[in-house]
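Before drawing any conclusions, I needed to go through one protein's amino acid sequence and its backbone structure tokens, quoted below without any editing.
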Amino acid sequence: MTNIPVLALPRTLALVDDDAEYSEYLAQHLEALGVDVHHFADSNDLLTSDQPFGFGFYIIDLMLPGVDGVDLIGLLRRRTQAGILVVSGRAAPDVFANVIDVGADMYLAKPVTFEQVVVAVRGVHRRVSTPIPKAWVLEVRASRLAAPDGALISLSETDLAVMQCFLDA
């Protein structure tokens, strides 16, 4: 087993894969490295759990009972910026582009070793856990407010005046 610093891995991880044997052994491997793994054999089980968007990381298979893996990634991206690694045997020419476009951080094609999964989790987790300072920006000339997530909010003249008062204060 590779000597991997525990601090480089997420504290909690949701493993969403219907392959019971693979999931059991991968979960054991990650738990031995100090990760609290919650396994879901069905994407609906994850989505109806107590905290579906509260995990520090997600490993997702694409061929799942319930919500399809690609759709699940899209749903997760609406509510969390946690790392998402796809580990799947789905073979199609556009799979890689689809999962990255919908919000996954990385894709590994099965078969894959547990060490490869751990290295991928560590790399993605390092990136997503490094805080990037974000701020609200008042764009006076465009009469809009830019949110930290990139959303643009159009402002009326009154809204713009109130926001300018906040800035002046």
About this structure: Residues 61 and 96 are 13 Å apart (CA to CA). The chain has a mean pLDDT of 91. The first strand starts at residue 12 and ends at 16.
